[in-house]
Each structure stands twice: as structure tokens, then as C-alpha cells.
Amino acid sequence: MYRPKSTLEQWRILQAVVDYGGYAQAAKALNKSQSSLNHAVTKLQDLLDVKILETVGRKAVLTEAGKALLRRSRDLTNSVSSLEQLAVNINQDWEPEITLALDLAFPRNTIYQALKTFMPESRGSRLRIIDTVLTGTLDAITSASADIVISLALPKGYLGEPIRHIEFVLVCHPKHYLASLPQPISTETLSQHLQIVISDTSDSPKENQGWLKSELRWTVSQFDSAIDLLRQNLGFCWLPLHKVEHLLSTAKLTRLYLQGSSYKQSSAFLVIPKPEHKGPGVCLLEKLILQQREIDLLCYENASQKNKIDHGTK
User: Fold this and answer.
1) Which residues are within 8 A (CB) of 286 and not within 5 positions of it... i.e. 6 or more apart?
2) Where is the HTH lysR-type domain (predicted)?
3) CATH entry 3.40.190.290 includes domain 167-266
4) Which of 92, 136, 194, 254 is the most exposed place for a label (fewest CB within 10 A)?
5) What would the mean pLDDT of 67-93 be, rounded to a whole number?
6) pTM assigned to the model
7) What's residue 262's pLDDT?
8) What are the residue boundaries of the structural domains of the chain, listed by start?
9) Residue 222: beta bridge partners?
């Protein structure tokens, strides 16, 4: 087994000498004698047989080799600090890893904004984000395979905090045959054409959600793939409005209307599958997501009010 010649303390001393601008300043900051620091760096150079510092005038300056070693030494000491902090966090029940399952239809910006705030407070906890769809999202709740789940439905016996309404619209290419028909169209007419559907991420999917009446269906794993197919004038698809709003406004896709109702809306919930087991990291991330929900709601209300005023002025 390899036994290192140098110690972490020697590398930390070298970093301090460089960061504080000399032995005297580093000795004061570390509350050590200047001679002990000089001895530690000299011994480090002797052990490695590499010149790390050289004296220029009255100042110790890094050599090119010293610069490379210093960069790597910071990775080493940071890794050890993270390892020690992880041990403290585990001892304090702070989770070493947090799993977040997100239904693919949920707008990511809300989550990303919360994660920006969470990152500096995460104490080195790893975050694993899983994309889920339909039954796969419900499975993440019932199997407790995720610590936090953003779901468009609640399994029986589970509670969730509503965080957003998501509208789904029926869309196709502007030159698709369905787009040329008088609107609204019948479900019978719609069922005669290719439907693009998003695959269920569950190992045992249950096709009891959404409109699945077309005999000819192509299945993709994500909304972006469905949108790409639609833009090639292939099929129709139910998609979250926030995913295609810009394409509808620029006439790259067009909306279809069904007889009876073309309105589909789902509520997204934040679910903690095992609330009795949630640790401080999960509690913090849950709190930040709910705070972002309030910010998003306020922005939406302000935008709606401005829109009303603008239209009133016109």
C-alpha cells in the first residue's frame, strides 16, 4: 500500500503562506511561529525533491512546479474538509444524498430557482434528480424511492402541498390535415390520426391517464422529442402549455380544439413520501420550493394585473 510522504498540514501551511503573502503573515493568521512554517515548507520540498517556493527579493514566490502542486493540493484539502463535514452531517442526521423526483410536465424553472438557494446551504449533500411520468411518478411516492416528489396526482393515502396548475393543450403542425378542419373537431376524427405520447416511466405502467384513443401511437421519452416530431408534421400531441407557448405564438405549431372540451388542467403537488423520516436537508429543500411557489404566484398575479391595465389603456 502506498504511504504518502507529505502531510495535509504541510500542504495547508503552504497554502497559507501563499494566500497570506508570506511566512510572517501566515504565522500570525495560523497562530504559529514563523520558523515552524518555514521548516514545514522546507521539509515538504525536500520530501518531494521539488522546488516549490523561491525567494525573490524579500518575498517567497511560487515556481511553475509550485503553482501546479498548489492547485492540486487545494483539491486535496477541500476533499478532506468535505469528507469531514459529511461525517459531521451524518452524525447530525443531515442526509448524505437527497433524491428529487420531478414529473416531466412540471416547469423546471421553479425548481431551479429553489436549488440555487439550496446549493450553498446543502452541506455537501449530493442531489439526485429523476425525471418521471404518469405511473412512474406515483411509483416514486408509493415506493419512497425519492425523498421529495413533484407529482400531478396523489396516490390514495398520501398528502401533498399544491404548488402549481399546469394546462395541457392539443397541438399539431400548422400544415397538418387536422389543422385544416373546421374547429372544434370530433374525438372520432382525432382518433384516426397518429398520436405522439410520452412514455410512462413506471415498470408497470397503467394507461388510465390522458387521452389515448388513437390506434396509431408513437411513444417518446420526453416532450422535446414529441415537439421535434410535431414540427416535422408528424401527428398530434397533448403537451404542457408552458412547453409550446413560444411555438404557438410564432405559428410553428398550432392548437387544435375538440368538441366537448379542449381544456385539460392538472394540479402539481409537492409530496414527501415518508414525512416521518425526512431529515434537515429535505426539510430545507421543501421549504425553499414552497417559498419559490409564492414568488411565482406573486409574479403571475403582477403580470396578469399589468396585462389587464395594458388592455384597459388600449
Assistant:
1) 148, 270, 272, 278
2) 7-63
3) yes
4) 92
5) 80
6) 0.69
7) 65
8) 8-91, 97-164+267-306, 167-266
9) none
Q: Taking the CB of residue 210, how many other CB atoms lie within 10 A of it?
A: 15
Angle at 305 between CA 314 and CA 105, to 5 degrees: 115
Residues 6+ apart with CB under 8 A from 71: none
Buried b (16+ CB within 10 A) or exposed e, 255-276: ebebeeebebebebbbbbbeee
Q: Is 252 helix (H, G, I), strand (E, B) or coil?
A: coil
Note the pLDDT tens digit of each residue in 114-162. 999 999 998 888 999 999 998 899 999 999 999 999 999 999 999 999 9
For 305, list phi and psi in degrees, rounded to 5.
-65, -40
pLDDT of residue 214: 73
Cis bond leading into 184, ω under 30°?
A: yes
Determine how many CB atoms are found less than 10 A away from the CB of residue 53: 21
Q: Quick one: CATH architecture of 8-91?
A: Orthogonal Bundle (1.10)
Average pLDDT over residues 11-27: 89
> In one letter, which amino acid is 149?
V
Higher-confidence residue of 108 and 307: namely: 108
The CATH number corresponding to 97-164+267-306 among 3.40.1050.10, 2.30.29.30, 3.40.190.10, 3.40.50.720 equals 3.40.190.10
Question: Which residue do the cell numbers 476533499 mark?
Answer: 79
pLDDT grade, residue 261 (50/70/90)?
confident
Say yes or no: do domains 97-164+267-306 and 167-266 share a fold: yes
Dihedral Cα 260, 263, 264, 265, nearest 10 deg: -140
- Answer with the residue of higher pLDDT: 87 or 17: 17
